[in-house]
Design a protein that fits this description.
The complex is a heterodimer.
Chain A: H1 4-11, E1 35-41, H2 47-55, E2 67-69, E3 78-82, H3 90-99, E4 105-109, E5 127-131, H4 137-147
Parallel strand pairs in A: 1-2, 1-3, 3-4, 4-5
Helix pairs in contact in A: 2-4
Chain B: E1 3-10, E2 13-20, E3 23-29, H1 40-44, E4 50-51, E5 65-69, E6 81-86, E7 91-97, H2 105-109, H3 114-123, H4 129-144, H5 150-178, H6 182-203, E8 212-213, E9 216-217, H7 223-247, H8 251-257, H9 265-271, H10 276-279, H11 307-329, E10 347-355, E11 358-367, E12 370-377, H12 379-390, H13 399-406, H14 410-414
């Protein structure tokens, strides 16, 4: 038998990194240990989709923080809205929010484009944070850590 | 064979954007010429519904229903809909609705100056930023006869190859995770993130935003960061080629891809498919072959035209692009990378670029210092049409392998 965990630790395969978000967020104080996420694209340029894909990669290893991507909004605590909604995506967005079980939160990431409708004007419920522009995966993780109450 | 990529209409005059032997050109004609090409209806209706241009009849029969997949599902990451026509297991037809993602960027460009137009062009598809901005600036530069410095030509090519590398890595990691090859896909995702870090070192943006400018590029990266990039790209390429060799030994993986969504070369050309998916059908077609900086580049092809071939072409292109990036970065001199003396005059220009998934083409009309009119042809439209054609007779579990192997994006198709 090989001692893989010991080998991994000795090689320091995971770099120590700090994930810092400058954005103000409301702490949910509802979810103490884990955060289940559901992501919806409402018309961003795909850059944010790729950042979310990057968040799945071993570099960030989000499972160690108890964060998981759920396959349905009905299994999620936090809805991540990517981009500024196109006209046709407003209704699907509202329907997705209706499917979220209480209590839930919404994280808006607006993206760098000036297309579509400003999501803040849609009067969405339980918005816990709004990130302007195209944050990197590390910055998104910083915001998620703040929301889950793991950092101040 | 001639491939139709776009139809631009100006009252009764029709301009047909055509690709043949690695060259893009415009043929003028009238309404009657529309029927010369099999895919013209697909192009004219691309914003309503994309469907198989080589078999337009609706599928009917006992138990056949429309399974609507999207716009909010965890399987389809983007805001788009696949209408799958099926009676349970076999997929009989697919129609693809991209209208939920339509941001009307080409309409927004009208009346803007060329720099604002460039910003909108790179917003079309965040993971094809360089491809779209390069096609746009080439259209402007061709219209105004601008000569660009040699160093910026090299840097643009490097940026394009970096974009190709991370996009191909993304596609292959998605295929690996669809086949439940979790160790392989974790390794590939790690390399994907490493490539985004390389992008940031090279251009100060993880997705190479704002690097290409009209007349050249924004800046020349410093020498010490270039050396760091070369070592990192070398490492990624070596790690990837090792993983790729090992992945082909896994029967579980190869069996899922082999003979899935097979496309014949003749059909692919009729549909208007370009890029690695066409090269996987054994067609030598690559816009880079006619560019000076790519003089020694060999076009990579494969024979079968199925998902496995498409994956293999992409994998070998990653290794090839890495070699090109390393070789080219060693030639970079520190000179002024941009030609500032540009005066916008009334003219028309055509610009094209070999993006990671095929040809991106911009046809621009400039008038009074502003963009009067623009037509954008994107590879994902034809990629979706090829999915609709090749998925027929495959079953539901083949769906992710068919879709991911073409490397298509709703953002790119919907503009």
């Amino acid at each position: 038998m090989k001692w893989w965990p010991a080998v991994g630790i000795s090689k320091m395969l995971t770099k120590k990194e700090e994930y810092i978000s400058k954005n103000e967020v409301k702490k949910l104080k509802l979810f103490k240990r884990s955060l289940h996420l559901y992501m919806i694209d409402v018309g961003n340029s795909n850059q944010l989709n790729f950042e979310i894909h990057a968040l799945h990669t071993p570099r960030y290893n989000i499972h160690r923080f108890g964060m998981y991507f759920a396959a349905s909004p009905r299994h999620a605590d936090l809805l991540i809205v990517l981009g500024r909604p196109t006209k046709k995506m407003v209704n699907p967005l509202r329907e997705t929010i209706r499917q979220m079980p209480d209590p839930f939160g919404i994280l808006l990431i607006k993206g760098c484009e000036e297309t579509g409708i400003d999501p803040e004007k849609l009067d969405l419920p339980n918005v816990v944070a709004t990130l302007e522009g195209c944050p990197s995966a590390g910055e998104i993780l910083g915001a998620l850590l703040k929301i889950s109450g793991r950092v101040d | 064979m001639k491939k139709l990529l776009g139809i631009h209409r100006n009252e009764d005059e029709f301009s047909f954007i055509v690709q043949e032997n690695g060259r893009i050109f415009v043929e003028h004609g009238n309404e009657k010429n529309i029927n010369d090409f099999a895919n013209s209806k697909l192009i004219l209706k691309r914003d309503e519904m994309i469907r198989d241009p080589l078999g337009e009849e609706d599928v009917e029969g006992e138990g056949v229903f429309d399974f609507r997949y999207g716009p909010v599902t965890s399987g389809v990451g983007e805001a788009g809909i696949y209408h799958l026509f099926t009676y349970g297991e076999r997929i009989l037809d697919v129609k693809i609705d991209t209208s939920y993602k339509r941001r009307e960027l080409d309409l927004k460009m009208k009346g803007k100056n060329v720099n604002e137009g460039l910003r909108l062009a790179q917003s079309v598809c965040g993971n094809f930023t360089i491809s779209h901005s390069l096609a746009f600036v080439r259209a402007v530069e061709n219209a105004l006869n601008v000569k660009i410095p040699r160093v910026s030509e090299l840097l643009r090519a490097v940026a394009l190859e970096l974009e190709r590398m991370y996009n191909h890595m993304y596609v292959i990691s998605r295929l690996a995770s669809a086949a439940a090859q979790l160790v392989l896909s974790s390794h590939l995702q790690g390399l994907f993130e490493a490539l985004l870090v390389v992008n940031e070192k090279f251009s100060k943006s993880r997705f190479l935003r704002d690097f290409v400018k009209i007349g050249g590029v924004a800046f020349v990266p410093k020498n010490n960061s270039l050396n760091g990039i070369i070592t990192e790209v070398e490492r990624i390429s070596n790690d990837f080629s090792d993983l790729f060799e090992r992945s082909l030994e896994s029967r579980n993986y190869v069996d899922r891809l082999h003979s899935t969504a097979t496309l014949k070369a003749e059909d692919a050309e009729k549909i208007g498919l370009t890029g690695p998916s066409l090269r996987a059908c054994n067609v030598l077609e690559d816009l880079r072959r006619r560019e000076g900086v790519y003089a020694t580049l060999e076009t990579i092809t494969d024979e079968e035209g199925d998902s496995l071939s498409r994956m293999e072409v992409r994998a070998r292109e990653i290794i090839q692009s890495a070699k090109f990036v390393i070789k080219t970065l060693r030639e970079i001199d520190d000179e002024k990378p941009i030609n500032d003396s540009i005066r916008v005059e009334d003219s028309q220009g055509l610009g094209a670029c070999e993006s990671p998934s095929g040809s991106v083409v911009y046809l621009l009309n400039l008038k009074g210092g502003k963009i009067e009119d623009v037509y954008i042809s994107t590879p994902s439209v034809f990629g979706f049409a090829a999915i609709a054609h090749s998925i027929r007779e495959n079953i539901f579990t083949d769906f992710p392998f068919a879709v991911e192997s073409y490397g298509v994006n709703f953002a790119d198709a919907a503009r």
